UniProtKB/TrEMBL annotation:
<comment type="similarity">
    <text>Belongs to the acid sphingomyelinase family.</text>
</comment>
<dbReference type="InterPro" id="IPR011160">
    <property type="entry name" value="Sphingomy_PDE"/>
</dbReference>
<feature type="binding site">
    <location>
        <position position="337"/>
    </location>
    <ligand>
        <name>Zn(2+) 2</name>
    </ligand>
</feature>
<dbReference type="InterPro" id="IPR008139">
    <property type="entry name" value="SaposinB_dom"/>
</dbReference>
<feature type="binding site">
    <location>
        <position position="219"/>
    </location>
    <ligand>
        <name>Zn(2+) 1</name>
    </ligand>
</feature>
<feature type="binding site">
    <location>
        <position position="217"/>
    </location>
    <ligand>
        <name>Zn(2+) 1</name>
    </ligand>
</feature>
<dbReference type="InterPro" id="IPR045473">
    <property type="entry name" value="ASM_C"/>
</dbReference>
<dbReference type="InterPro" id="IPR029052">
    <property type="entry name" value="Metallo-depent_PP-like"/>
</dbReference>
<dbReference type="GO" id="GO:0006685">
    <property type="term" value="P:sphingomyelin catabolic process"/>
</dbReference>
<feature type="disulfide bond">
    <location>
        <begin position="232"/>
        <end position="237"/>
    </location>
</feature>
<keyword id="KW-0732">Signal</keyword>
<feature type="binding site">
    <location>
        <position position="479"/>
    </location>
    <ligand>
        <name>Zn(2+) 1</name>
    </ligand>
</feature>
<feature type="region of interest" description="Disordered">
    <location>
        <begin position="25"/>
        <end position="63"/>
    </location>
</feature>
<keyword id="KW-0378">Hydrolase</keyword>
<dbReference type="GO" id="GO:0016798">
    <property type="term" value="F:hydrolase activity, acting on glycosyl bonds"/>
</dbReference>
<feature type="binding site">
    <location>
        <position position="477"/>
    </location>
    <ligand>
        <name>Zn(2+) 2</name>
    </ligand>
</feature>
<feature type="disulfide bond">
    <location>
        <begin position="102"/>
        <end position="167"/>
    </location>
</feature>
Length: 632
């Protein structure tokens, strides 16, 4: 076995561990979406549609298609993209891997697999590599590699991309894999012209309001063990496992510490005691919200030891908590990248032997209680749905694990997997015709470099087309508190939309647990269905563990804290510009961004990175940030 073979397989496997380690905004793996040449596209696996056959118009270059060919940002120089990736710290992880090595390895590994090298030989070599190079401790190495063997070996064996293209996905544009904008895949918009943009108008004073709760990124850990050592030398601590003495070269730097009853700020997830305390508290204040949105990620970060059965068990456990403590509150959810096993693995329909029925069926069981039967077909097929909880308001739940660069199945074909975006257009067009307003739920913020570029660009254009209809968007995944902007896709100056990126319930990592309650304009005739304000509530974990009395405290409301006149896209854009100029205001935002866990003040590159994260509503567009702030 040549060392490069184990290296390459290992890179796939360790991505998941690294993913588990990196939940700070801008600290996840970089990648790029594949180029789809005609030859490649024609050989790609057949992807079936979420919509009806008649509604699937394909992605050809016809009238109404969102076009990218003239987009200067797609032809950006390598230096500019390298700078973008550096800003997102995407190059650090791959600092020792050159493009030449990558291309060589991809070529060789594909040939080796095709020469039928025994799978177990590959797996054992990778485990040895993982242990010998002290990437993780032996316990994690032995479990993480088999988790991914089926996915990785199948994908590499069936890879239809050239080695250059594959390395472009792994290493990004900085890997000298240029884009060919003409080959960008495009969703098809209807012929109906875009209505004239109508700036939102605030409701009259005294107009009725609704309120709804958002929970995101619970990451419940049933193996959480009070008193276990922290840190522990593994990607996830505070666990029963950590009480077992084992040889680990990584624990030598461990400081004395014990996991608290309600959690720990370091790499620990949520104990059931904390979740029960949260649900008990929410039950006591249930008159303060009308319904709940849940934006994904229920299981813990022990991605090396999970199974499908365990993931479904977590889903069911959460359902029981909702049933027990909040039985009359409708819950509208979307699916996170941790719901599946192995992590991030969402093979699109049509790949032989791969079927997401185990998860989508479980989601249908969980979500179906609050959805009309007409919404269930798309849950079973793609993990998405569209439903109207109130006349005039539509909730569209998107599964954007189909844009996740950690979803290796997309190496086989990343062109609108499951036709989710084409389906979204149909839902938005229908809503526009009916005069409905839409709230979009999805897990991964679409501007995050976790989200593949072309999916992200298409989504950005869809939001642009339906700016009068999509009034609010709600994301999770980052575990921290921020928002992301959408500007008009001609000048990129006029704010047309934004999305809330909500802080997590999990403490992973260096977070206080947070939940959020929004105030919404509705429910009355001609409601705007726009969020008017929200309130965050947090648990001071140190105090909770010391007192054994978890007290949820008010954190802030943006209108007051940031002196905003409203929560429309123009107001968030205005806040962005004010934060650039007013450092006190920015530092206040930064404390909220870090979930009230005190940090050193954020200046220089730290400040630029966070402001750029907000500006970049679509991924891999390094020109976007400098259109709005001074990027040095
Ligand atoms: Zn998460
Ligand atoms: Zn996530």
């Amino acid at each position: 076995m040549k060392p490069w073979l184990s290296f390459f397989i290992f890179t796939f496997c360790t991505m998941a561990v690294l993913e588990a380690r990196s939940k700070v905004v801008g600290d996840s793996k970089q990648t790029q979406t594949p180029e789809r040449g005609g030859d490649t596209a024609s050989k790609s696996v057949k992807i079936s549609s979420v919509g009806t056959p008649a509604s699937n118009n394909g992605h050809g270059a016809t009238d109404g298609v969102v076009k990218f060919g003239d987009d200067k940002s797609s032809g950006m120089g390598i230096n500019k993209m390298a700078s973008y990736l550096q800003r997102h710290r995407r190059l650090d992880r791959w600092g020792n891997v050159t493009c030449g090595v990558c291309v060589f390895v991809v070529t060789e590994i594909r040939d080796m697999i095709r020469r039928a090298t025994a799978v177990q030989t590959i797996v054992q070599e990778v485990i040895k590599f993982c242990v010998n190079f002290k990437i993780e401790d032996e316990h994690v190495c032995k479990l993480i590699v088999p988790q991914f063997q089926e996915e990785v070996l199948y994908v590499v064996d069936n890879l239809l991309l050239s080695p250059d293209e594959a390395c472009g996905i792994i290493l990004g544009d900085a890997c000298a894999t240029p884009y060919f904008p003409g080959e960008m895949w495009n969703v098809t918009l209807p012929d109906t012209p875009k209505p004239i943009p109508r700036p939102p108008t605030p409701p009259k004073p005294g107009a009725p309001t609704l309120r709804f709760l958002q929970l995101t990124d619970l990451h419940l850990d049933f193996q959480y063990a009070v008193g276990s050592p922290v840190p522990c030398g593994e990607p996830l601590c505070c666990r029963v496992d950590d009480n077992i003495t084992r040889t680990s070269t990584l624990t030598s730097h461990a400081q004395p510490g014990k996991a608290g009853k309600y959690g720990d700020y370091q790499n620990c997830d949520v104990p059931i005691d904390m979740l029960i305390a949260l649900f008990s508290h929410l039950s006591s204040i249930q008159d303060q919200f009308d319904y709940i949105i849940m934006t994904g990620d229920i299981p813990a970060h022990d991605v090396w030891s999970q199974s499908r059965t365990q993931q479904v068990y977590h889903l069911t456990a959460l359902d029981k908590l909702f049933d027990q403590y909040l039985p009359n509150k409708p819950v509208y959810a979307c699916v996170g990248n941790h719901e599946t096993s192995p992590i991030n693995a969402f093979p699109p329909p049509g790949i032989p032997g791969q079927d997401m029925g185990w998860l989508y069926g479980a989601l249908a069981e969980s979500w179906g209680k609050w959805l009309p039967s007409s919404a269930m077909d798309t849950v079973f097929r793609c993990g998405v749905y569209s439903m109207s909880p109130y006349p005039g308001l539509r909730i569209v739940s998107i599964n954007n694990n189909y844009c996740n660069n950690g979803n290796w199945w997309l190496l086989l074909n990343s062109t609108d997997p499951c036709d989710v975006l084409q389906w979204l257009i149909e839902e938005l067009q229908s809503a526009e015709v009916k005069g409905e307003k839409v709230h979009i739920l999805m897990h991964i913020p679409p501007g995050d470099p976790n989200c593949l570029k072309y999916w992200s660009f298409n989504f950005y254009n869809i939001v642009n087309r339906y700016e009068n209809t999509v009034v609010n968007q709600f994301y999770g995944h980052s575990h921290q508190d921020w928002y992301t902007m959408f500007y008009d896709n001609l000048t990129f100056q006029r704010p047309v939309a934004f999305g809330f990126v909500s802080p997590s319930v999990t403490t992973y990592s260096l977070n206080n647990p947070i939940y959020r309650i929004y105030t919404l304009d509705g429910d009355y005739a001609n409601s705007s269905w726009a969020v008017l304000d929200y309130s965050n509530f947090y648990l001071n974990l140190t105090e909770a563990n010391l007192s054994d009395k978890p007290q949820w405290q008010f954190e802030y409301s943006p209108k007051k804290a940031y002196n905003m006149t409203g929560l429309y896209a123009k107001d968030w854009d205005d806040l962005l510009k004010r934060m650039e100029a007013d450092d006190d205001l920015f530092q206040q935002f930064y404390l909220h961004n870090k979930n009230m866990y005190p940090r050193t003040p954020c200046h220089g590159n730290c400040k630029t990175e966070l402001l750029c994260d907000i500006i970049e509503g679509r991924s891999y567009d390094p020109d976007l940030c400098s259109k709005h702030i001074n990027v040095t």
